[in-house]
Design goal:
The complex is a heterodimer of chains A (722) and B (345). Chain A is mainly α. Chain A has helices at residues 2-23, 37-43, 49-64, 74-91, 100-105, 118-137, 145-173, 184-191, 193-196, 209-237, 243-249, 260-269, 274-283, 294-319, 322-330, 335-364, 367-372, 379-387, 394-421, 441-468, 484-490, 506-536, 542-554, 557-568, 579-602, 607-615, 620-628, 633-648, 665-674, 678-703, 705-717, and strands spanning 92-93, 96-97, 471-473, 478-481, 492-495, 498-501. With 345 residues, chain B is of the alpha+beta class. In chain B, 23% of the residues lie in helices and 36% in strands. In chain B, the strands form four sheets. Chain B has a six-stranded mixed sheet, sandwiched between helices. Chain B has a five-stranded antiparallel sheet with strand order 13-12-11-14-20. The radius of gyration of chain B is 24 Å and the shape is elongated. The chains are: A mainly alpha (722), B alpha+beta (345). The A-B interface holds A 2-4, 7, 70, 136-139, 142-145, 538, 606, 608-609, 611-620, 622, 626-627, 630-631 and B 58-62, 76-87, 89-91, 93-97, 106-107, 110-112, 154-155, 158. Bound molecules: adenosine-5'-diphosphate and magnesium ion (MG).
């Protein structure tokens, strides 16, 4: 009965950890060794004693019952301990009791309590471990302990870092300046004119910020979807000569730092922009500021989203079974008729889903509106300005964030419905049988006519980025080559101890590299485990689990950022201003990258192989390590590098979480843009892009070309809404 | 179907086992005991719950209700990794990235045997099973038949309490099936394994099993030796599913069963009854002018099948090829072997 002994060792381990955490380790973040829950509980904090008591009760259970994992009292004891643990943490805050009643029961609670320390943290972890063990003993996850632990841990992480902050933010929307519950201010904030005003449709005045956001989203999604469709048709259904170039284009948004497209557009089309000057001379008109506002943001967003819509639509097109089109052709239909009666109806659901995807991205976009907005406010920028700068108004930011979240969730709901209904797309997995029907010539002409200007625009933008960092001032057309900007940002010296960086961008660059390096493996680990749970495990509530993860991906980055501010700058979990919060927010923003990679990779591994491993005595972790992961190592490596690269360009969530000590590259660049130091911003961006391009090239070397194409498609489509 | 053997002798016990998937009931209350060293086959039409029952034994699914004991221990809530059950998958499920030898050594290594020792053991089993010399190949470099033997070797190497086969012949060439199934049977007896074997092919089941469990819609329809099931089917479903059968409705009175044109001795209570008569238990006598008329003939190489009309019902009769051919329309007399008439419940 080897197995039975091993069971006990694991759960006894959790129990030992729990006892140690409540009896010996410091309960609070600010506290000495020995200031444990046990000691403090008997001193002047009696509310800590119930958790200690329940821990001892669990120990008693373990000592007295042989098969204590299956004892009916285990789960009630564990859940009671967890409930009390959470209750005391939230009922008594930094400044004392949250409710007057608590203060009456525990007079000493007036002094308040600080954030959780090692003891509280490990006690929480141990209780989760015991919970997952106890549930597995009841048949949760088919009794598989590792899978059960993964479910519990991921649910706990999502609850703590995604849903709890959102709830907290929701609560902040319903409080007044003094932090008291009040509906008045909320109603006031929601109904103000500058949210819903429609003046822009009838006059030269601007519309409300919600109207702006929706207007921008609709326009941007329409244009990006149309362009993406033109590109996808050219690549999948014509003999267009530059297909490879178009495919390569799809990698651009991954390695493009935010702001940089905005800056490039200013450099090209701003009042003193290269093209503006050129045009002004040509047509003899006065250069204007037309690019600031809707036109500029729209240009930048279309540029950023088109590669994504292109990839998704390309996937849809390639999944259409060519035999259907062939059948139509053999029945004598002409190309245009085949297209309009067969191809188009099959494409339609994909187009709708793509449109909604782009719409959601546009709602969430922060980098472009902040650079190019001018007087054109959207929700994401308005949220930012509500908490950054002189007027710190969390209530207002929270209300706006809730509106943004509601818009996003409506679009998300529509999207899942469309995707759900899209199953009449003839997805066969194998589309290489038969010849695809080329699009009608007229359509090809239209597509080329649309794509060429777009391609020229992309080239101009990226050329000015790469050039701008290395000339004196591209904004004023001073094209003298120089390394000054790079030197300002990244000057370094080689000393005895090695390389030393001095430049102004040094700190943010180092933090960015650290955050990316720390978050990439975590992103992958959590993503792959989540994919594994969703694809391969069978547990009560799996549907809800899947939906919860999907939902967490849909939350706009700005909302995530502001919600983290609302949730984590006070106990029990206070960690704003630390690097941990940056890493965590990046991990959860990028989780889709890891998860999609995991799902794609798992599809290559026959499920019965895992089951064979299990019947031979391997637990979930061993099966993953020995059977599932080794054959998909290249896919994991690729996704790891992409997580790293994506982390480097994260902006919308981290912009709220950076601090003087831990600044990030994107935030630093934004600072430069705000100061009008475009050349510096561009130089820094160029360096970032080069670093990222090297990373991507590395994959190409290591993993090989073939897989890159596929993986790119996956990761680009899986980019979180920023 | 009470099992009289003592607990220690039982390898597997199902006690009221139910498995639901959402609203669908895949296994609907199974009670069954399997003795040590026995090869038991789960037989039934597709979707009747055979694979699910097998997965319940392996622990790849856990029962929604009821209990399952393996070697006397209640394992109803134990995951697959904490049971000791070997399984040969329909797709073989060999690990593609490691050698044949390491595939077979996987179980022992996982259970804590040192790598060198586990490999030595794996080598022994591979040699014994006739795969010596293929140790260092990858699974993809083997033929289908070899892959299957590796899968069997891998399941044996972990010295399982029970070994499970899910339709092991479904990916084997039709010509090789007879050979492979007798190999499996020989190995099972050689290693003294308790085995559960799933198939939907009644001939295969009859050939390999000590006992057969016929399943229908998630329930057990009948359990018995191959002979029991063939000679004494309990219901029309079994009679039809195993071999061919003539099902006839009639009455029993005073120890005789009578139906349109038919009158055979059949002990038992008086009243309406339905019986099954195997086609090979009916002989046709062309020399006597009987009540039956030949309605058709099918030449099957090894035997001859005739359809015979008798008072409104049509009987299927299987005859040795050596007997004289019969003309359609010819009248014949029937001689029914009374041992081949089974009353159905
Ligand atoms: N994982 C599952 N989820 C839902 N239904 C299932 C699952 N596995 C089996 N079933 C259903 O249970 C029934 C029995 O299936 P199975 O045991 O595979 O049948 P058999 O192996 O006898 O063909 C079928 O109706 C099947 O659809
Ligand atoms: Mg089956």
């Amino acid at each position: 009965m080897n197995a039975a002994v091993a069971i006990d060792r694991a759960s006894v381990g959790w129990l030992g950890l729990l006892i140690g955490a409540v009896a010996a380790l410091p309960w609070y973040a600010v506290g000495a060794f020995g200031e444990s829950a046990l000691v403090l509980g008997f001193a002047d904090r009696p509310w800590l004693l119930p958790v200690v008591g329940l821990a001892l009760a669990l120990a008693g259970l373990a000592a007295r019952t042989r098969d204590w994992r299956r004892h009916p009292a285990l789960l009630p004891l564990v859940t009671a301990a967890q409930a009390i643990f959470l209750l005391q943490a939230f009922a008594i805050g930094l400044n004392g009791p949250a409710l007057p009643l608590v203060g009456q029961i525990f007079p000493t609670a007036q002094a308040g309590q600080t954030g959780m320390g090692a003891g509280a943290f490990l006690a929480g972890v141990a209780l989760l471990g015991l919970l997952s063990d106890g549930l597995a003993a009841r048949g949760f996850c088919r009794g598989e302990r590792f899978a059960s632990a993964c479910v519990i841990v991921i649910v706990a992480l999502l609850a703590l870092f995604v849903f709890f902050p959102i709830l907290k933010l929701g609560a902040a929307a319903f409080t007044d300046e003094n932090g008291a519950l009040a509906f008045g201010p909320c109603i006031e904030r929601v109904t103000v004119r500058n949210l819903w005003g429609l003046a822009c449709f009838t006059s030269r005045l601007s519309c409300g910020v919600v109207i702006n956001t929706i207007q921008l989203g609709l326009l941007s999604a329409t244009l990006a979807t149309a362009l993406g469709l033109a590109l996808a048709l050219l690549v999948a259904r014509t003999d267009f000569r530059f297909k490879r170039v178009l495919r390569a284009l799809s990698i651009l948004p991954i390695i493009t730092p935010p702001f940089v497209v905005g800056v490039a557009i200013i450099v090209l089309f701003g009042r003193s922009g290269v093209l503006t000057q050129f045009g002004a001379e040509l047509f003899d008109v006065r250069p204007g500021r037309w690019v600031y506002g809707l036109p500029g943001i729209l240009m930048a967003q279309v540029l950023a989203f088109t590669p994504v819509t292109f990839l998704v639509l390309l996937g849809t097109l390639e999944a259409i079974n060519p035999t259907l089109e062939e059948a139509s052709k053999t029945l004598g239909a002409r190309p245009l008729r085949t297209f309009s009666t067969v191809t188009w109806p099959l494409l339609r659901p994909g187009i709708a889903a793509t449109f909604l995807l782009a719409f959601i991205e546009s709602l969430a976009d922060f980098g472009n509106p902040i650079v190019l907005g001018g007087g054109y406010d959207v929700l994401s920028t308005r949220i930012f300005f509500a908490v950054v700068g002189a007027r710190y108004d969390l209530g207002n930011a929270a209300t706006l964030a809730m509106i943004l979240l509601a818009l996003t969730l409506i679009a998300f709901r529509a999207q899942t419905r469309w995707l759900g209904r899209a199953n009449y797309v003839t997805v066969t997995g194998k589309s290489d049988a038969g010849l695809v029907a080329p699009v009608p010539p007229m359509l090809k002409l239209v597509a080329v006519a649309v794509v060429l200007p777009f391609a020229a625009f992309v080239v101009a933008v990226y050329a000015s980025v790469l050039l701008g960092g290395f000339v004196t001032d591209i904004g004023r057309l001073d094209m003298t080559p120089t390394f000054d900007h790079i030197r300002t940002a990244f000057s370094f010296e080689l000393e005895a101890e090695g390389l030393r960086l001095y430049g102004s961008a040094r700190d943010s660059m180092m933090t960015t590299l650290w955050v990316s390096a720390l978050s990439a493996p975590l992103t992958m680990a959590i993503g792959i485990l989540t994919a594994w749970l969703v694809a391969r495990q069978d547990f009560a509530g799996r549907r809800a689990f899947e939906f919860g993860t999907m939902l967490s991906f849909a939350i706009p980055g700005t909302v995530v950022g502001i919600s983290c501010v609302a949730a984590f700058n006070v106990p029990p979990v206070d960690m704003t201003g630390t690097m941990i919060i940056l890493v965590i927010s990046v991990v959860f923003r990028n989780m889709p990258v890891g998860m999609r990679a995991g799902i794609a990779a798992l599809a290559q591994i026959d499920r019965s192989m895992e089951e064979a491993s299990q019947t031979m005595g391997a637990g979930g972790a061993q099966t993953l390590g020995r059977v599932v992961l080794p054959p998909i190592r290249p896919a994991i490596f690729t996704a790891l590098v992409y997580s790293f690269v994506t982390a480097m360009t994260a902006v919308s969530a981290v912009i709220f979480l950076v601090s003087a000590r831990h600044n990030m590259a994107t935030a630093h660049i934004m600072g430069r843009v705000e100061n009008g130091e475009y050349a510096l911003a561009i130089a820094y961006s160029a360096v970032l892009m080069i670093v990222m391009a090297i990373c991507v090239a590395l994959i190409q070397l290591v993993v090989g070309k073939r897989q890159l194409g596929r993986r790119t498609a996956l990761t680009a489509a899986a980019q979180p809404a920023e | 179907m009470k099992d009289t053997t003592q607990g220690t002798d039982l390898a597997i016990e199902f006690v009221g086992v139910v498995k639901r998937f959402g609203d669908a009931v895949a296994v609907d209350g199974i009670d069954l005991s399997i003795r040590r060293g026995e090869l038991v086959t789960f037989l039934g039409p597709s979707g009747c719950g055979k694979t699910t029952s097998l997965r319940l034994i392996a622990g790849l699914d856990l029962p929604s209700a009821g209990h399952l004991r393996i070697a006397g221990r209640d394992v109803s809530r134990d995951p697959a990794s904490e049971r000791n059950v070997g399984m040969v998958f329909q797709s073989y499920a060999l690990f593609p990235h490691v050698s044949v030898l390491d595939n077979v050594a996987y179980g022992p290594v996982i259970r804590g045997v040192k790598k060198a020792e586990a490999r030595a053991k794996a080598r022994g089993i591979l040699d014994q099973i006739g795969l010596g010399g293929l140790h260092d190949r990858l699974p993809a470099e083997l033929s289908g038949g070899q892959q299957q033997r590796v899968a069997v070797a891998r399941a044996i190497a972990q010295q399982p309490d029970v070994i499970l086969f899910d339709e092991p012949l479904s990916n084997v060439d039709a010509k090789l099936r007879r050979k492979v199934r007798s190999e499996i049977r020989a190995l099972q007896q050689e290693f003294g394994l308790t085995a559960v074997y799933v198939t939907h092919d009644q001939e295969e089941a009859l050939a390999v099993s000590d006992r057969i469990v016929v399943m229908d819609k998630g329930r057990i329809a009948q359990v018995g030796t191959p002979e029991d099931l063939y000679e004494r089917p309990a219901s029309a479903f079994i009679a039809n599913f195993i071999g061919d059968a003539n099902l006839i409705e009639g009455r029993v009175a005073a120890g005789r069963f009578t139906a349109a044109g038919l009158d055979v001795p059949l002990p038992g209570a008086d009243g309406p009854a339905s019986v099954s008569i195997r086609p090979e238990r009916i002989a046709l006598d062309a020399t006597a002018d009987g009540p039956a008329r030949v309605a058709g003939a099918t030449y099957l190489g090894s035997r001859m099948e005739n359809a015979v009309a008798l008072g409104g019902t049509e009987l299927l009769v299987s005859r040795p090829i050596s007997e004289p051919r019969l003309e359609t329309g010819q009248t014949v007399a029937l001689r029914i072997d009374t041992g081949g008439v089974t009353r159905l419940s």
